[in-house]
Write a structure and sequence with these properties.
43% of the residues lie in helices and 19% in strands. It is α/β, with parallel strands linked by helices and 284 residues long. Helix 2 crosses helix 4, helix 7 runs parallel beside helix 8 and helix 8 runs parallel beside helix 9.
Amino acid sequence: MSGVVKTLSLRRLASAVARRAKGLATGGLASGLLRLAGLLYRNRPVPMGVVAQARRMAVAHDGLYPRNMTVMTTGLDLRDAHLAATFAESTFGEWSLAAEVVNFLEAFVRRTEPAYVLELGSGLSTACLAHVLAELPPGVHRRLVSIDQSSNFVARTRDLVDRVDVAVPVELHVRPLQPRPLHGAVASTYDLDDAFLTQLSTPSPPDLVLVDGPTGGGAGRFAALEALCPYLRDDTVVFMDDGLRDEEIGLARRSRTDSLLRVEGVYLLGKGLVIARTGRRRAA
């Protein structure tokens, strides 16, 4: 299977998978293509070209975007025993990240051991990240910063963080929404002025960025990243939830060529987890 991936172009690969998907009766052609792509790429992100091909086959608005009921679970589905016990009665996958996304991020953080994680959109994920960071090897000053548009939600997040009882400092910031230009239009995103962004990147910028806010669609999220990217190192990993929503698919495709964000693809977890890296695409 790896030989097929290496030799086929994205267009030929998408066409080959689409032909195979025609025989699937459940979930429609677009969903069938996406499921087969998931099998083909296994534990790797599905390239945006393949995701876009599947989206073009879907008739309905947000045709690839999973409905809440298909991804909602309780905290009992979390792989970490402490988090599963602490959030056993909490719902994951409705407004928060799906449990399988949290599990993926837990494994990623344990493997890469970032010193500083920045999160856009606070909540259950903030508490889970704080716990995982606290369990990383000692000797490194860890930092978790989370931004949200709602003071009420930040207060609730503080309560969630207190429940996991971690030693890692967690900074919660309320940043109200304001208009910001994006691709010739105007998006509503966090108030990220230069002074605040300098504060976030001092003494060193984040090693990992997780985007699950602001609410209101993908434009606000990409506008926030456009403001943030100049303050990040090249090749900083960025994860973004809701990657199978129409707006995120379109903006992710566009960001491959005209911004400081290199989108690598979408992990088929929860509602779609986009992975990208900062820095312009390098010439081959």
